[in-house]
Amino acid sequence: MKVEKREGYDGTGPGAITPDGCAVELYARLPVRDEPDIIAAAVPAGAHILELGSGVGRVTHPLLARGFTVTAVDESAEMLERVRGARTICSPIEDLDLGEKFDVVMLASFLVHAGDVEVRRGLLRTCVRHVAEGGCVLIQREGEDYHTDLPRERVDPGGFTVRMVSAVPVGDGVNSVRAEYVFPDAVWTQTFRARPLTREQFEEALAEAGLEVDEYLTPDEMWVRAVRR
Fold first, then answer.
1. For a Cys staple, 160 with which of 74, 176, 177, 183, CB 3.0–4.6 Å?
2. pLDDT band at residue 149 under the 50/70/90 scheme
3. Which residues contact 149 (CB under 8 A, 6 or more apart)?
4. Strands 174-182 and 187-194: what pairing?
5. Facing residues of 114 across strands?
6. How far apart are the first and last CA of the chain?
7. CA angle, corner 126, sides to 200 and 50, nearest 5?
8. Global confidence as pTM
9. Three-state DSSP class for residue 45
């Protein structure tokens, strides 16, 4: 299935670039952080997780190792080729309708901040459509300062540098964000559209989709467990 590049999204660097500007080779190099621990602490042991936007399986694989069953969804076939041990489905998230229910639906990677409001609504409708009765939706939000105090950078212990270069307003509350990932042997860039959401705006978006916050899982409120209203 060929997916057209999304307007306002682009990327540069070695290897395949997905429709939303992600570089497959870059994401295959990025290390796993505390995401699997946060997820495992928030859901029942052995749960069946529908992972929306799985990419190359950076989080998928640690979840499988912890005993979860994972169905990994991504719109990039090149990304899904890197996933091992999980059922994979190649599809835009907002169009997904598997006719199945899952203990946990996960929408990570700040996808809830999609610049296009209709895309965000579609993402959240997909979450609601696939979560089982009594199940939950895990959502990763942007940090409070994600679009401010730019440019900034951090040097990863893995030996590469992540630079958040700019967040330029493009209208209707949306920013065009540019990031750079500098490795000793390669450089990747990604440009994408993102809509900053206050806590109130985020909760309003959930309510519109028929969800509500059950718990903010981390002190920075970036990880959220939501349930049906």
1. 183
2. confident
3. none
4. antiparallel
5. 194
6. 35
7. 105
8. 0.95
9. coil
